[in-house]
Amino acid sequence: MLHPKKRFGQHFLHDRNVIGRIVATLAPRPGDHIVEIGPGKGALTRELAAHLPHFDAVELDRDLLAHLHATIPAGKLTLHGADALKYDFCQLMQQDRKLRLVGNLPYNISTPLLFHLLDQAGCIQDMLFMLQKEVVQRLAAAPGGKDYGRLSVMIQYRCAVEKLFDVAPGSFTPPPKVDSSVVRLVPHAKPPVAVNDEAQFAKVVRAAFASRRKTLRNNMKGLLSAEDMTALGIDPTRRAETLTLMEFAALSNEISLLSA
């Protein structure tokens, strides 16, 4: 009997309607290179196997690896026993076919995992993930609201975000204490704003949101003066959650220009 392990943040999806809806939304086509992250006990995996000649999956739990080997038809699935937070997904690419990632992600690692995947966005066609509803709201948030933050900016700089549907706790074993949502992330072929130095951009976004109650003048101290912000048309008394992607890019590019 396989029991969910708290240290892995496991909540196994079992609702057949939700599983069918995820696969229908994914709409795998012949030739797609599908990679499932965190297949768990294999409820979604078995449904994918019914629609695909072959696909890959990355799973850390050794007990689940043995279970999946025993229950998924031979030749359908290549299992990779690895920590998705450290895994090089780009190594799975074959013949320039970008990866289509899908999975019910462990909620305790979802944010660092998303940042890890962003670093490999050039290898990824799209991502369809089950996440905590609150995290999906942050991914899709527009400037000006409480959900808009560093995660919103960095994800939206790299991907188009589409919240698809919500999933109730009863669809999982054990039921999580939060609602879940399914989201589609599609890496941009070209970012929506021009950034001269992506490392600088990430540094600016991190600094701006370091303390949400503080103004840009305070959070950006040492990076850019209030006068320089004003010259860009950005009021230094504003807070980070009010800035658009374009304004974050303007701040970053100005710092790059001044430090050149």
Task: State the gist of this model.
Its EC number is 2.1.1.182. With 260 residues, this protein is an alpha/beta fold.
How would you explain this protein's 3D organization?
This protein has 260 residues and is α/β, with parallel strands linked by helices. It has two domains: 6-187, Vaccinia Virus protein VP39 (Rossmann fold, 3-Layer(aba) Sandwich); 198-259, rRNA adenine dimethylase, C-terminal domain (Helicase, Ruva Protein, domain 3, Orthogonal Bundle). The chain contains ten helices and nine strands. The strands form two sheets. A seven-stranded mixed β-sheet has the order 4-3-2-5-6-9-7. A two-stranded antiparallel ribbon has the order 1-8. Helix 1 (16-26) packs across helix 2, helix 4 packs parallel to helix 6 (150-158) and helix 7 crosses helix 10. The chain is elongated, with a radius of gyration of 20 Å. The termini are far apart. The mean pLDDT is 93.
Overall pLDDT score: 93
Fraction of residues in helices? 25-40%
Can you list the strand order of the major beta sheet? 4-3-2-5-6-9-7
Termini gap? 61 Å
Give the beta-strand count: 9
Shape: elongated
Poorly predicted segments: none
Radius of gyration from the CA trace?
A: 20 Å
Q: Helical segment tally? A: 10
Per CATH, what is the topology of the largest domain?
Rossmann fold
Main location: cytoplasm
Family: Belongs to the class I-like SAM-binding methyltransferase superfamily. rRNA adenine N(6)-methyltransferase family. RsmA subfamily.
GO molecular function, one term: 16S rRNA (adenine(1518)-N(6)/adenine(1519)-N(6))-dimethyltransferase activity
Domain Ribosomal RNA adenine methylase transferase N-terminal: 18-189
